[in-house]
Amino acid sequence: LWFWKISYDTIYLKSVKYFCKELMEEMNSQHPGLTGLRNLGNTCYMNAVLQCLCSVPPLVEYFLSGKYQAALHNENGESAAAFGCLMSDMWHGEFDSVSPEVFYSVLGKQYPTFSKMTQEDAQEFLVCVLNELHQALKKVRAQLWCFRDCRSVKETSIITQLFEGQLSYKITCLECKTTTDRPESFTILSLPIPSKSACSLQDCLECFFQQETLTKNNQIYCSWCRSKQDAAVKATITKAPQIIIFHLKRFEWQGRRRRKLSTNISYPLSNLDLSPYSSPLFYKNAEYSLCAAVVSFERHPLRLYEV
Question: Which domains are assigned to the chain?
Fold first, then answer.
């Protein structure tokens, strides 16, 4: 599930939508952007992910305007160049469908799993595509104090600008009550499904962000106690991305067998409020609207994906 920050939509998207409108007026097509992707043999999961990516307005503007070409790294820019060509083919709308073969071939060199033309996981494919595009387009943004602390040097790209958020895990030692904060960046949040029958996306979020107690083999080392101790851990969003992607964990282990959860999950089309899970500093502008969804459904003997 992909959700777009409402405040970002009202500010930045005005200029992006204006660009796309001008671009569409220049195209000799009645349906720019409404182009299908041919299935090359069990590639429906790839196609579904690419359709979502190629419908994100800032990403469309970035690639169709040619901005990405100035950011390309020669050593690993082949994937981003192929993605840019595919984006152009899809948005010019000259054909009902186009082949993503070139992009898949380039990506398969880095990730052989996706070159076998077998059914794989859409979420894993998305992670690889985002990582590959980031590596090809990243630039180093140095902070003012970077000469004192090399950790303040941050690699940024159009991918991190749109999809990257940050969590902070507050860890409290239950023996001495000392607390520490551990930051962690994310581009996709994998949410547990708390019910076997039916639940909402909000229920999944509540489950993910509820406080967890670590005991026994999961104890943490406390530097104050100088030993492993039980601890309480609670996650909070400290940086909300412009586009937040949720992956619903539909598989669970029962002994040595993996079972799929067929739980019906409801989710809002607009006004998804993430402020209950955010740091007080980020309560403002924490509402999102649905912009894309990738759905997997079983049809024996294949697993199919649709947008």
Answer: 2-306 (3.90.70.10)
